Prior knowledge:
heterodimer, A: alpha+beta, Uridine Diphospho-n-acetylenolpyruvylglucosamine Reductase, domain 3, Alpha-Beta Plaits, 2 domains, five-stranded antiparallel sheet, 14 helices, 25% helix, B: alpha/beta, seven-stranded parallel sheet, 9 helices, binds flavin-adenine dinucleotide, binds NADP nicotinamide-adenine-dinucleotide phosphate
Amino acid sequence: MSDGPSAELFPAARRKALTGWGRTSPTFADVVVPMTREQVAAAVQRRTERGVIARGLGRSYGDPAQNGGGLVLDMSGMNRVLDADLETGVVTVEAGVSLDRLIELFVPFGFFVPVTPGTRQVTVGGAIGADVHGKNHHADGSFCDHVLSMDLLLADGTVRTVTPEDDPELFWATAGGMGLTGIVLSAVVRLIPIETSLVSVDTDRTRDLDEIMALMAETDEKYRYTVAWLDCLAKGRNLGRSVLTCGEFARLEDLPAKKRAKPLHFKSGSLVTVPDLVPGRLPNKFTMGLFNELWYRKAPQHKVGQLQGISPFFHPLDAVQEWNRAYGKTGFLQYQFVVPFENEDAMRTIVKTISDAGAPSSLTVLKRFGPGNRGFLSFPKPGWTLTLDFPTNTPGLSALLRRLDEIVLSNDGRFYLAKDSRMDPSDLAAMYPRLEEFRAVRAKVDPDGVFVSDQARRLGLA
Amino acid sequence: MKDALGAPQSLLILGGTSEIALHTARKLVDDRVRRVVLAGRPSEGLDRAADELRGRGAEVEVVGFDAAEPDTHEKVIDGVFADGDIDVVLLAFGVLGDQEADEQDPVAAAKVAQVNYVGGVSAGLASVKALRRQGHGSLAVISSVAAERARKANFIYGSSKAGLDAFAQGLADKTHGTGVHVMVVRPGFVKTKMTQGMPDGPMATTPDVVADGIIKGLRKGSTTIWVPGQLRFVFSALRHVPRPIFRKLPI
Ligand SMILES: Cc1cc2nc3c(=O)[nH]c(=O)nc-3n(C[C@H](O)[C@H](O)[C@H](O)COP(=O)(O)OP(=O)(O)OC[C@H]3O[C@@H](n4cnc5c(N)ncnc54)[C@H](O)[C@@H]3O)c2cc1C
Ligand SMILES: NC(=O)c1ccc[n+]([C@@H]2O[C@H](COP(=O)([O-])OP(=O)(O)OC[C@H]3O[C@@H](n4cnc5c(N)ncnc54)[C@H](OP(=O)(O)O)[C@@H]3O)[C@@H](O)[C@H]2O)c1
């Protein structure tokens, strides 16, 4: 045996079409699902000149986890928990472990993931690659702020254990580096302690954008988790009317007596799946207008201390599996940007522009970021971030988004690479002032550009 | 790479001075295309076209390419792809010939077939091989309504386009499900240098309109487009006209 046992057990590559969650811009690649480190290394060694990229659960909206004509390593097979300290909540996990799995495993022991995006169907590798943020960014930072160390397979085939202390450059190039520095094999992550699996939620409904922004500026100091849902179709006086939810994990004493017996009860699992047959486009201006109206009306004017489970509070969308199919064949895109607090007027201009255009954004989420970290391409920085969903066949979408691009760019804002599927590559350097530093690190660890994705090609990232 | 709204970033034109192709290029450069490669027979016109597109903000390369020399095609095309992905290949070269004269000059007539059909076969295959290697991209082949049914007034050109058209359809089916999209473009009479001095045909259109049709078809992933669109119906009717009558039609 020449190449060792891994070569014989090597899972076969399958050529197939891949897209991101938005189901746009498919490309074909050879997909391998490695189960061990050795198989990852062997696969990387067998790459062609089209290179290789890691893929988690494909929850990025655009094309960062695709590599047309090349190799894609579907990391979801590397999903073991390697070590867990149930005193401190420090866990060592393979990169393909999902946050869903971590929550399911460790909530019963009194630990929650330090940061979770709006879906928990993401892998630890994907959470590192995009340095994801959650409703607690202002309080706890982003995912990589809680990563103590990671094992990274480099272009030359070696595995390096990278920590923020010993190798800050490579660590912070990988954090938010969209898979372009290497393959994260495993990571050591510090979970946060919780007393119960319930969240104590305060809800407020606000009439317009000014009111929600003023309210959020106050509430961020008081709550660990905050987020607002915005009705982007409301016009005039109602422009930017919102529902704000703020939460904290409930303490044991917050629970009613009958729930104290099993305070850490948690059950994952989704309810329904959208079939892959939805024709045309379901969400449109009319249905979305109705939906937004209902959502807004449904929310209480002001409610305090409501107890909610982890799923409804953090991951309401996960209740419907593959909900992205509801947008039909042409797919959709997400537009997420951040603008600094001092330029918050840009938020108003943007919300008004979208409302005037009557473009249906089904899910519009507003959030305040705290300080960013040292990730060269990490997205969060202090300011307001707004996230919008648009079906790609929305009439006039391209022109509308270009108007928004200009506002974002001229207000020192930036786009989130995990959501991007259409930004103008020439905006990248202004938005990410540390891009050159990122490229320098990558040029050092991957001089031949072995790690490459469709997004990297599209944006000239690396 | 094409973006989520279907806007390509790079374009290879085979037949770099074609007016239809250059109108398409201008529109795409005004959108997201940054890299344009003009492949054609070296000429001042080719250089001028490159400069014009540069003026619009594109990075333009000019490479030598002769449709009548199939044994060079793969090398030229591979060279272009080696420098970076190509999202759209526009196969635009073609010659009209001179039907009356060519009927008396079999070698000249064969040259029309050599460029339009034989050249299309080798350039089309070489393009698709390269597109498949990168796992994405489109090839738009400019055929013609003349391919639909050979008319006595221009059957030399028409038959060469019929060959090209049939070839491109087969290629589209063969590549279906590989990430490569092949589209057949069937324009009617287009006012370009190819038709200069000729009286406008029925439903005559402009290269600008054809360009819009090509861009829309690329975005939608169409397999066949007609410009103007009504020609689809005109020609499906014409196709079924009995020969004795068809022969006498003044077309
Ligand atoms: C409904 C929904 C809500 C969302 N909400 C949020 C939110 O609130 N906040 C937020 O920040 N994001 C949010 N996202 C985006 C999502 O969190 C990120 O796109 C995340 O990266 C997806 O993880 P994944 O495992 O699916 O990775 P993929 O999408 O498959 O990959 C993402 C990137 O990580 C890289 N990568 C993956 N695994 C590895 C590895 N092992 N080694 C190296 N690189 C790797 C890939 O190359 C790629 O560049 C949301 C997405 C959805 C669908
Ligand atoms: N105009 C119409 O009415 C019409 C209608 C239907 C279909 N079409 C088709 O549309 C395509 C584009 O035509 P157009 O209208 O844009 O006319 P055009 O401007 O005359 O373009 C024809 C192109 O073909 C190129 N070409 C000819 N022989 C070549 C060869 N041996 N090697 C490389 N390139 C060669 C020409 O390049 P040079 O500069 O080197 O000559 C020119 O770039 C053609 O395929 C044509 O058949 C045209």
